[in-house]
Protein backbone atom coordinates (compact mmCIF):
# COMPACT_ATOMS: atom_id res chain seq x y z
CA UNK A 1 0.00 0.00 0.00
CA UNK A 2 0.98 3.57 -0.44
CA UNK A 3 0.40 5.45 2.74
CA UNK A 4 1.96 8.80 1.99
CA UNK A 5 1.83 10.78 5.24
CA UNK A 6 -0.41 13.81 5.33
CA UNK A 7 1.73 16.92 5.08
CA UNK A 8 2.92 18.35 7.46
CA UNK A 9 2.58 15.27 9.68
CA UNK A 10 5.84 13.86 8.33
CA UNK A 11 8.85 15.60 6.87
CA UNK A 12 9.62 12.98 4.21
CA UNK A 13 7.11 12.18 1.52
CA UNK A 14 7.91 9.20 -0.70
CA UNK A 15 5.43 8.00 -3.27
CA UNK A 16 5.71 4.24 -3.41
CA UNK A 17 4.37 2.35 -6.39
CA UNK A 18 5.69 -0.80 -4.77
CA UNK A 19 5.41 -4.51 -5.23
CA UNK A 20 2.05 -4.77 -3.49
CA UNK A 21 0.56 -4.43 -6.94
CA UNK A 22 2.22 -7.76 -7.65
CA UNK A 23 0.96 -9.14 -4.37
CA UNK A 24 -2.56 -8.27 -5.45
CA UNK A 25 -2.10 -10.49 -8.49
CA UNK A 26 -0.08 -13.25 -6.87
CA UNK A 27 -2.10 -13.62 -3.66
CA UNK A 28 -5.81 -13.51 -4.46
CA UNK A 29 -7.95 -13.82 -1.35
CA UNK A 30 -10.96 -16.08 -1.23
CA UNK A 31 -12.62 -14.85 1.97
CA UNK A 32 -12.37 -12.10 4.53
CA UNK A 33 -12.34 -14.55 7.42
CA UNK A 34 -9.38 -13.14 9.33
CA UNK A 35 -7.98 -14.36 12.64
CA UNK A 36 -7.02 -11.56 15.00
CA UNK A 37 -3.43 -11.02 16.06
CA UNK A 38 -2.16 -9.90 19.45
CA UNK A 39 1.27 -8.64 18.39
CA UNK A 40 2.91 -7.45 15.20
CA UNK A 41 6.56 -7.57 14.15
CA UNK A 42 7.86 -4.33 12.66
CA UNK A 43 11.01 -3.73 10.63
CA UNK A 44 12.29 -0.30 11.58
CA UNK A 45 12.94 1.21 8.15
CA UNK A 46 12.58 4.67 9.72
CA UNK A 47 15.28 3.82 12.25
CA UNK A 48 18.16 1.36 12.28
CA UNK A 49 16.48 -1.40 10.28
CA UNK A 50 16.17 -3.81 13.20
CA UNK A 51 13.01 -5.71 14.11
CA UNK A 52 10.78 -5.20 17.12
CA UNK A 53 7.44 -6.60 18.24
CA UNK A 54 4.62 -4.58 19.82
CA UNK A 55 0.99 -5.06 20.80
CA UNK A 56 -1.11 -4.64 17.67
CA UNK A 57 -4.29 -2.89 18.89
CA UNK A 58 -2.78 -1.33 22.01
CA UNK A 59 0.47 0.08 20.60
CA UNK A 60 1.02 -0.33 16.86
CA UNK A 61 -2.28 1.05 15.57
CA UNK A 62 -2.50 4.12 17.86
CA UNK A 63 1.02 5.10 16.80
CA UNK A 64 0.22 4.63 13.10
CA UNK A 65 -2.92 6.74 13.45
CA UNK A 66 -0.87 9.44 15.17
CA UNK A 67 1.91 9.46 12.57
CA UNK A 68 -0.17 9.03 9.45
CA UNK A 69 -2.99 11.51 10.10
CA UNK A 70 -2.64 12.56 13.70
CA UNK A 71 -3.91 16.14 13.43
CA UNK A 72 -7.24 15.11 11.90
CA UNK A 73 -10.60 15.31 13.65
CA UNK A 74 -12.05 12.25 15.35
CA UNK A 75 -14.12 10.58 12.62
CA UNK A 76 -11.12 10.86 10.26
CA UNK A 77 -8.94 9.27 12.95
CA UNK A 78 -11.39 6.36 13.06
CA UNK A 79 -11.18 6.10 9.27
CA UNK A 80 -7.40 6.02 9.55
CA UNK A 81 -7.58 3.31 12.21
CA UNK A 82 -9.75 1.05 10.03
CA UNK A 83 -7.57 1.65 6.95
CA UNK A 84 -4.33 1.02 8.87
CA UNK A 85 -5.71 -2.12 10.53
CA UNK A 86 -7.04 -3.55 7.28
CA UNK A 87 -3.79 -2.88 5.44
CA UNK A 88 -1.73 -4.49 8.19
CA UNK A 89 -3.83 -7.66 8.04
CA UNK A 90 -3.62 -7.62 4.25
CA UNK A 91 0.15 -7.17 4.36
CA UNK A 92 0.57 -10.03 6.83
CA UNK A 93 -1.24 -12.39 4.48
CA UNK A 94 1.99 -12.56 2.45
CA UNK A 95 4.66 -11.50 4.95
CA UNK A 96 5.72 -12.05 8.56
CA UNK A 97 6.39 -8.40 9.37
CA UNK A 98 5.43 -4.88 8.37
CA UNK A 99 7.78 -1.98 7.61
CA UNK A 100 7.90 1.17 9.69
CA UNK A 101 8.15 3.76 6.96
CA UNK A 102 6.59 5.04 3.80
CA UNK A 103 6.99 1.68 2.08
CA UNK A 104 4.19 0.35 4.32
CA UNK A 105 2.88 2.48 7.19
CA UNK A 106 4.62 4.98 9.44
CA UNK A 107 4.68 3.81 13.06
CA UNK A 108 7.39 6.11 14.40
CA UNK A 109 10.38 8.19 13.39
CA UNK A 110 12.50 5.33 14.68
CA UNK A 111 12.26 2.72 17.42
CA UNK A 112 9.54 1.46 19.71
CA UNK A 113 7.19 4.10 21.09
CA UNK A 114 4.74 3.97 24.00
CA UNK A 115 1.01 4.06 23.39
CA UNK A 116 0.37 7.74 22.56
CA UNK A 117 -3.05 7.71 24.21
CA UNK A 118 -5.46 10.55 23.52
CA UNK A 119 -7.74 10.59 20.52
CA UNK A 120 -5.39 8.29 18.60
CA UNK A 121 -5.93 5.47 21.07
CA UNK A 122 -9.64 6.32 21.35
CA UNK A 123 -10.08 6.01 17.57
CA UNK A 124 -8.51 2.55 17.63
CA UNK A 125 -10.66 1.44 20.56
CA UNK A 126 -13.83 2.77 18.90
CA UNK A 127 -13.12 0.67 15.80
CA UNK A 128 -11.61 -2.34 17.57
CA UNK A 129 -11.16 -5.28 15.22
CA UNK A 130 -12.86 -3.61 12.24
CA UNK A 131 -11.62 -4.42 8.73
CA UNK A 132 -12.86 -3.84 5.18
CA UNK A 133 -13.62 -6.41 2.51
CA UNK A 134 -15.54 -6.79 -0.72
CA UNK A 135 -17.30 -9.99 -1.78
CA UNK A 136 -15.52 -11.78 1.07
CA UNK A 137 -12.08 -10.57 -0.07
CA UNK A 138 -9.87 -8.50 2.23
CA UNK A 139 -9.16 -5.00 0.90
CA UNK A 140 -5.74 -3.40 0.47
CA UNK A 141 -7.00 0.02 1.75
CA UNK A 142 -4.54 2.32 0.00
CA UNK A 143 -4.37 5.88 1.31
CA UNK A 144 -2.41 9.03 0.44
CA UNK A 145 -2.30 12.62 1.64
CA UNK A 146 -4.18 13.92 -1.41
CA UNK A 147 -5.03 17.51 -2.20
CA UNK A 148 -6.55 19.84 0.38
CA UNK A 149 -10.17 20.19 -0.81
CA UNK A 150 -11.63 23.68 -0.86
CA UNK A 151 -15.31 22.72 -0.98
CA UNK A 152 -17.65 20.71 1.20
CA UNK A 153 -17.97 17.88 -1.32
CA UNK A 154 -14.35 16.94 -0.43
CA UNK A 155 -13.77 16.19 -4.12
CA UNK A 156 -10.58 18.08 -4.94
CA UNK A 157 -10.42 20.41 -7.93
CA UNK A 158 -7.43 21.22 -10.09
CA UNK A 159 -6.88 24.47 -8.22
CA UNK A 160 -6.73 22.86 -4.76
CA UNK A 161 -3.24 22.68 -3.23
CA UNK A 162 -1.60 19.27 -3.53
CA UNK A 163 1.70 19.64 -1.66
CA UNK A 164 2.59 15.94 -1.82
CA UNK A 165 1.54 15.43 -5.47
CA UNK A 166 -0.61 12.46 -4.49
CA UNK A 167 -4.10 13.59 -5.49
CA UNK A 168 -3.65 11.66 -8.76
CA UNK A 169 -3.95 8.41 -6.79
CA UNK A 170 -7.17 9.31 -4.92
CA UNK A 171 -10.40 7.63 -6.03
CA UNK A 172 -13.85 9.14 -5.60
CA UNK A 173 -15.52 5.78 -5.92
CA UNK A 174 -18.82 6.70 -4.29
CA UNK A 175 -19.29 9.96 -6.21
CA UNK A 176 -18.59 8.13 -9.48
CA UNK A 177 -20.94 5.27 -8.54
CA UNK A 178 -18.28 2.60 -9.11
CA UNK A 179 -19.62 -0.71 -7.83
CA UNK A 180 -18.65 -4.35 -8.14
CA UNK A 181 -16.19 -5.01 -10.97
CA UNK A 182 -16.69 -1.46 -12.27
CA UNK A 183 -14.58 -0.25 -9.34
CA UNK A 184 -11.20 -0.84 -10.96
CA UNK A 185 -9.21 0.68 -8.09
CA UNK A 186 -6.28 3.06 -7.88
CA UNK A 187 -3.07 3.03 -9.88
CA UNK A 188 -1.21 2.45 -6.63
CA UNK A 189 -2.07 -1.23 -7.08
CA UNK A 190 -2.81 -3.57 -9.93
CA UNK A 191 -5.75 -1.99 -11.76
CA UNK A 192 -8.47 -4.43 -12.72
CA UNK A 193 -11.05 -4.28 -15.46
CA UNK A 194 -14.78 -5.03 -15.37
CA UNK A 195 -14.11 -8.37 -17.06
CA UNK A 196 -11.00 -9.11 -14.98
CA UNK A 197 -11.54 -7.39 -11.61
CA UNK A 198 -8.94 -7.12 -8.87
CA UNK A 199 -11.20 -6.97 -5.85
CA UNK A 200 -8.58 -6.19 -3.16
CA UNK A 201 -7.88 -2.87 -4.93
CA UNK A 202 -10.98 -0.81 -4.16
CA UNK A 203 -9.32 2.61 -4.45
CA UNK A 204 -7.34 5.09 -2.38
CA UNK A 205 -8.44 7.41 0.39
CA UNK A 206 -7.37 11.04 0.66
CA UNK A 207 -6.33 11.84 4.22
CA UNK A 208 -6.91 15.56 3.65
CA UNK A 209 -10.31 14.82 2.14
CA UNK A 210 -11.19 12.47 4.98
CA UNK A 211 -10.35 15.20 7.46
CA UNK A 212 -12.54 17.67 5.57
CA UNK A 213 -15.48 15.27 5.60
CA UNK A 214 -14.94 14.61 9.30
CA UNK A 215 -14.79 18.34 10.04
CA UNK A 216 -18.11 18.71 8.24
CA UNK A 217 -19.77 16.06 10.42
CA UNK A 218 -19.51 12.88 8.32
CA UNK A 219 -19.66 9.50 10.06
CA UNK A 220 -16.49 7.44 9.64
CA UNK A 221 -18.26 4.57 7.85
CA UNK A 222 -19.66 6.98 5.27
CA UNK A 223 -16.14 8.37 4.73
CA UNK A 224 -14.75 4.88 4.14
CA UNK A 225 -17.45 4.24 1.55
CA UNK A 226 -16.83 7.63 -0.05
CA UNK A 227 -13.34 6.50 -1.09
CA UNK A 228 -13.48 2.69 -1.23
CA UNK A 229 -17.03 2.34 -2.56
CA UNK A 230 -20.56 2.08 -1.28
CA UNK A 231 -20.36 -1.72 -1.52
CA UNK A 232 -17.34 -2.10 0.77
CA UNK A 233 -18.26 -4.27 3.76
CA UNK A 234 -17.19 -3.59 7.33
CA UNK A 235 -16.61 -6.63 9.53
CA UNK A 236 -14.64 -7.88 12.53
CA UNK A 237 -11.58 -10.10 12.75
CA UNK A 238 -11.99 -13.31 14.72
CA UNK A 239 -11.19 -12.73 18.41
CA UNK A 240 -8.07 -14.14 20.00
CA UNK A 241 -8.40 -17.00 22.49
CA UNK A 242 -8.68 -15.49 25.96
CA UNK A 243 -9.36 -12.01 24.58
CA UNK A 244 -11.26 -9.76 27.02
CA UNK A 245 -14.97 -9.39 26.29
CA UNK A 246 -15.81 -6.87 23.58
CA UNK A 247 -18.37 -4.13 24.11
CA UNK A 248 -18.74 -2.12 20.92
CA UNK A 249 -20.93 0.93 20.40
CA UNK A 250 -22.36 0.62 16.89
CA UNK A 251 -24.27 3.90 16.85
CA UNK A 252 -23.73 6.72 19.34
CA UNK A 253 -25.18 9.68 17.39
CA UNK A 254 -22.06 11.78 17.96
CA UNK A 255 -21.58 12.18 14.18
CA UNK A 256 -25.18 12.83 13.21
CA UNK A 257 -27.77 10.12 12.72
CA UNK A 258 -25.03 7.63 11.75
CA UNK A 259 -26.77 4.30 10.96
CA UNK A 260 -30.31 5.60 11.59
CA UNK A 261 -30.42 8.31 8.94
CA UNK A 262 -33.64 7.32 7.15
CA UNK A 263 -36.93 9.05 7.83
CA UNK A 264 -38.95 7.49 10.62
CA UNK A 265 -41.67 6.46 8.14
CA UNK A 266 -39.27 5.12 5.47
CA UNK A 267 -39.93 1.39 5.88
CA UNK A 268 -43.02 -0.23 4.41
CA UNK A 269 -43.90 -1.95 7.69
CA UNK A 270 -44.27 1.43 9.43
CA UNK A 271 -47.92 2.35 9.91
CA UNK A 272 -50.33 4.68 11.69
CA UNK A 273 -47.92 7.60 12.09
CA UNK A 274 -49.07 11.19 11.86
CA UNK A 275 -47.27 14.06 10.15
CA UNK A 276 -45.62 15.14 13.39
CA UNK A 277 -43.50 11.99 13.66
CA UNK A 278 -39.74 12.42 13.30
CA UNK A 279 -36.29 11.14 14.22
CA UNK A 280 -33.50 13.66 14.67
CA UNK A 281 -30.26 14.08 16.58
CA UNK A 282 -30.74 15.89 19.86
CA UNK A 283 -28.52 17.28 22.60
CA UNK A 284 -31.39 17.37 25.08
CA UNK A 285 -30.59 13.90 26.41
CA UNK A 286 -27.65 11.50 26.07
CA UNK A 287 -26.89 8.16 27.68
CA UNK A 288 -23.23 8.59 26.70
CA UNK A 289 -21.45 11.46 24.99
CA UNK A 290 -23.40 14.58 24.11
CA UNK A 291 -26.12 13.41 21.70
CA UNK A 292 -28.89 10.90 21.16
CA UNK A 293 -31.66 10.51 18.61
CA UNK A 294 -35.01 11.95 19.59
CA UNK A 295 -37.88 9.89 18.16
CA UNK A 296 -41.23 11.66 18.19
CA UNK A 297 -44.26 9.44 17.64
CA UNK A 298 -47.41 11.24 16.46
CA UNK A 299 -49.90 8.39 16.70
CA UNK A 300 -52.60 8.56 14.02
CA UNK A 301 -55.44 6.97 15.99
CA UNK A 302 -58.06 7.87 13.39
CA UNK A 303 -56.04 6.28 10.62
CA UNK A 304 -55.47 3.24 12.80
CA UNK A 305 -59.22 2.70 13.26
CA UNK A 306 -59.92 3.16 9.57
CA UNK A 307 -57.25 0.85 8.12
CA UNK A 308 -58.72 -2.45 9.34
CA UNK A 309 -61.50 -1.54 11.74
CA UNK A 310 -59.33 -2.41 14.74
CA UNK A 311 -57.31 0.06 16.80
CA UNK A 312 -54.11 -1.99 17.17
CA UNK A 313 -51.60 0.84 17.44
CA UNK A 314 -48.62 2.13 15.50
CA UNK A 315 -45.61 0.22 14.21
CA UNK A 316 -42.25 1.82 13.41
CA UNK A 317 -39.50 -0.15 11.69
CA UNK A 318 -36.56 2.23 12.18
CA UNK A 319 -34.00 1.04 9.63
CA UNK A 320 -30.25 0.78 10.22
CA UNK A 321 -27.68 1.41 7.49
CA UNK A 322 -25.29 4.24 6.64
CA UNK A 323 -26.38 6.67 3.94
CA UNK A 324 -23.48 5.80 1.61
CA UNK A 325 -24.29 2.09 1.46
CA UNK A 326 -24.67 0.84 -2.12
CA UNK A 327 -24.76 -2.51 -3.89
CA UNK A 328 -25.54 -4.00 -7.26
CA UNK A 329 -28.56 -6.28 -7.50
CA UNK A 330 -25.95 -9.03 -7.73
CA UNK A 331 -22.18 -8.99 -7.36
CA UNK A 332 -21.27 -8.52 -11.02
CA UNK A 333 -24.13 -6.62 -12.63
CA UNK A 334 -27.57 -5.14 -12.18
CA UNK A 335 -28.79 -1.71 -11.19
CA UNK A 336 -27.18 0.11 -8.25
CA UNK A 337 -29.40 0.20 -5.19
CA UNK A 338 -29.28 2.17 -1.96
CA UNK A 339 -30.48 -0.47 0.48
CA UNK A 340 -31.63 0.43 3.97
CA UNK A 341 -31.48 -2.25 6.62
CA UNK A 342 -29.00 -4.16 4.44
CA UNK A 343 -25.72 -5.79 5.54
CA UNK A 344 -23.69 -3.52 3.24
CA UNK A 345 -24.59 -0.49 5.37
CA UNK A 346 -23.80 -2.11 8.70
CA UNK A 347 -21.02 -3.86 10.62
CA UNK A 348 -20.95 -7.66 10.35
CA UNK A 349 -21.02 -9.20 13.84
CA UNK A 350 -20.89 -12.76 15.21
CA UNK A 351 -24.08 -14.27 16.60
CA UNK A 352 -22.43 -14.86 19.96
CA UNK A 353 -23.16 -12.55 22.86
CA UNK A 354 -25.89 -9.93 22.94
CA UNK A 355 -27.25 -6.94 21.06
CA UNK A 356 -29.11 -3.94 22.42
CA UNK A 357 -29.46 -0.21 22.98
CA UNK A 358 -30.52 2.39 25.54
CA UNK A 359 -33.85 4.23 25.59
CA UNK A 360 -35.24 7.12 27.58
CA UNK A 361 -39.00 7.39 27.17
CA UNK A 362 -40.95 10.34 28.51
CA UNK A 363 -43.94 9.36 30.68
CA UNK A 364 -47.08 8.24 28.84
CA UNK A 365 -50.52 6.96 29.81
CA UNK A 366 -50.61 3.53 31.43
CA UNK A 367 -52.45 2.05 28.44
CA UNK A 368 -49.88 3.28 25.87
CA UNK A 369 -48.49 -0.27 25.57
CA UNK A 370 -45.09 0.90 24.32
CA UNK A 371 -42.87 -2.00 23.25
CA UNK A 372 -39.59 -2.43 21.42
CA UNK A 373 -37.76 -5.17 19.53
CA UNK A 374 -34.72 -5.42 17.27
CA UNK A 375 -34.45 -7.13 13.89
CA UNK A 376 -31.26 -8.57 12.45
CA UNK A 377 -30.07 -9.93 9.12
CA UNK A 378 -28.31 -13.21 9.75
CA UNK A 379 -25.44 -12.70 7.37
CA UNK A 380 -23.12 -15.15 5.64
CA UNK A 381 -20.95 -14.02 2.70
CA UNK A 382 -22.04 -11.01 0.64
CA UNK A 383 -25.68 -11.72 -0.16
CA UNK A 384 -28.58 -9.32 -0.35
CA UNK A 385 -31.25 -11.82 0.79
CA UNK A 386 -30.08 -12.75 4.28
CA UNK A 387 -32.77 -14.16 6.59
CA UNK A 388 -34.48 -11.51 8.69
CA UNK A 389 -35.09 -12.40 12.34
CA UNK A 390 -36.83 -10.35 15.01
CA UNK A 391 -36.40 -10.46 18.77
CA UNK A 392 -39.24 -10.82 21.22
CA UNK A 393 -40.73 -7.52 22.37
CA UNK A 394 -39.79 -5.80 25.61
CA UNK A 395 -42.04 -3.31 27.41
CA UNK A 396 -40.60 0.21 27.27
CA UNK A 397 -40.23 1.76 30.72
CA UNK A 398 -41.58 5.29 30.25
CA UNK A 399 -40.30 7.02 33.38
CA UNK A 400 -37.96 9.66 31.95
CA UNK A 401 -34.85 7.62 32.83
CA UNK A 402 -32.35 5.72 30.69
CA UNK A 403 -32.83 1.95 30.52
CA UNK A 404 -30.90 -0.72 28.65
CA UNK A 405 -32.75 -3.15 26.36
CA UNK A 406 -30.72 -6.21 25.47
CA UNK A 407 -31.23 -9.62 23.84
CA UNK A 408 -29.05 -12.70 23.91
CA UNK A 409 -27.85 -13.94 20.53
CA UNK A 410 -27.29 -17.38 22.06
CA UNK A 411 -30.92 -18.11 22.84
CA UNK A 412 -33.16 -19.14 19.94
CA UNK A 413 -36.30 -18.69 22.04
CA UNK A 414 -35.78 -14.92 21.79
CA UNK A 415 -35.86 -14.85 17.97
CA UNK A 416 -38.73 -15.24 15.53
CA UNK A 417 -39.22 -14.67 11.79
CA UNK A 418 -39.44 -10.90 11.37
CA UNK A 419 -42.98 -9.50 11.43
CA UNK A 420 -44.32 -13.04 11.73
CA UNK A 421 -43.45 -13.87 8.12
CA UNK A 422 -41.84 -17.28 7.63
CA UNK A 423 -40.76 -16.09 4.19
CA UNK A 424 -38.40 -13.61 5.89
CA UNK A 425 -36.76 -15.83 8.50
CA UNK A 426 -36.98 -19.04 10.50
CA UNK A 427 -36.10 -18.03 14.06
CA UNK A 428 -32.73 -19.81 13.94
CA UNK A 429 -29.63 -17.62 13.78
CA UNK A 430 -26.69 -18.41 11.51
CA UNK A 431 -23.02 -17.58 12.09
CA UNK A 432 -23.01 -13.81 11.44
CA UNK A 433 -25.46 -10.96 11.48
CA UNK A 434 -25.97 -7.24 11.01
CA UNK A 435 -28.51 -4.93 12.60
CA UNK A 436 -31.53 -4.40 10.35
CA UNK A 437 -33.82 -2.16 12.38
CA UNK A 438 -35.32 -1.26 15.74
CA UNK A 439 -39.07 -1.81 15.91
CA UNK A 440 -41.36 0.28 18.12
CA UNK A 441 -45.02 -0.42 18.80
CA UNK A 442 -47.62 1.35 20.92
CA UNK A 443 -51.00 3.06 21.14
CA UNK A 444 -50.27 6.67 22.03
CA UNK A 445 -48.10 9.62 21.18
CA UNK A 446 -44.59 9.19 22.57
CA UNK A 447 -41.18 10.83 22.82
CA UNK A 448 -38.34 8.32 22.99
CA UNK A 449 -34.60 9.01 23.01
CA UNK A 450 -32.38 6.32 21.46
CA UNK A 451 -28.66 6.07 22.23
CA UNK A 452 -25.69 3.69 22.39
CA UNK A 453 -26.80 0.88 20.08
CA UNK A 454 -24.29 -1.81 21.03
CA UNK A 455 -22.93 -5.30 20.54
CA UNK A 456 -21.43 -7.24 23.44
CA UNK A 457 -19.63 -10.55 23.28
CA UNK A 458 -21.11 -11.28 26.73
CA UNK A 459 -24.55 -12.87 27.13
CA UNK A 460 -26.66 -10.88 29.58
CA UNK A 461 -30.27 -10.76 30.78
CA UNK A 462 -32.06 -7.55 29.69
CA UNK A 463 -32.76 -4.88 32.26
CA UNK A 464 -36.52 -4.26 31.91
CA UNK A 465 -38.00 -5.87 34.99
CA UNK A 466 -41.67 -6.29 34.13
CA UNK A 467 -42.91 -9.80 34.85
CA UNK A 468 -43.98 -10.21 31.25
CA UNK A 469 -40.56 -9.12 30.04
CA UNK A 470 -38.68 -11.58 32.22
CA UNK A 471 -41.04 -14.44 31.45
CA UNK A 472 -40.78 -13.74 27.73
CA UNK A 473 -37.01 -13.51 27.72
CA UNK A 474 -36.18 -16.21 30.24
CA UNK A 475 -33.48 -16.09 32.87
CA UNK A 476 -31.45 -19.09 31.78
CA UNK A 477 -29.58 -18.88 28.51
CA UNK A 478 -30.40 -21.75 26.19
CA UNK A 479 -27.55 -22.59 23.87
CA UNK A 480 -29.13 -22.90 20.51
CA UNK A 481 -28.54 -25.04 17.50
CA UNK A 482 -26.47 -23.38 14.80
CA UNK A 483 -26.45 -23.79 11.12
CA UNK A 484 -23.00 -24.44 9.75
CA UNK A 485 -24.04 -23.46 6.24
CA UNK A 486 -26.67 -21.16 4.87
CA UNK A 487 -29.77 -22.72 3.42
From TrEMBL:
Domain (Sporulation stage II protein D amidase enhancer LytB N-terminal) ranges: 59-134
Q: Where is this region: Disordered?
A: 275-294
Query: In the UniProt record, does the keyword Amino-acid biosynthesis occur?
Result: no
List, alphabetically, the InterPro entries matched.
Ice-binding_C (IPR013424), SpoIID/LytB_N (IPR013693)
Task: Give the Ice-binding protein C-terminal domain ranges.
Answer: 460-482
Q: Which domain of life is it from?
A: Bacteria
What is this protein's name?
A: Stage II sporulation protein
Organism the protein comes from: Rubripirellula lacrimiformis
Give the source lineage, highest ranks first: Bacteria, Pseudomonadati, Planctomycetota, Planctomycetia, Pirellulales
Amino acid sequence: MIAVPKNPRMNTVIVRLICLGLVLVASPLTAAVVDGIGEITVRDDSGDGTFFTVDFEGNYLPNVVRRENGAASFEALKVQAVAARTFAYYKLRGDTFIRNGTSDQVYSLGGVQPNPGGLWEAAVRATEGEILSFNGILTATFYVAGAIPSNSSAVATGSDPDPTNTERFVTYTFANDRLGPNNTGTTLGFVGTPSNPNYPNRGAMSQNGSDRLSDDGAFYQNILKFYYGGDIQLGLVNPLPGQPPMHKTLTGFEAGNEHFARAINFAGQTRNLGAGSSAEVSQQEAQEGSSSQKITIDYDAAGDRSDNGVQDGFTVRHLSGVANGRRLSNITNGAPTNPAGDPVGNLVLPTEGSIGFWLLAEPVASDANLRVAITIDEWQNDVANADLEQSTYLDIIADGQWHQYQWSLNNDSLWLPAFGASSLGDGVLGQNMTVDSIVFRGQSDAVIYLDSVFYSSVVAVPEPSTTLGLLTLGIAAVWRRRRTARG
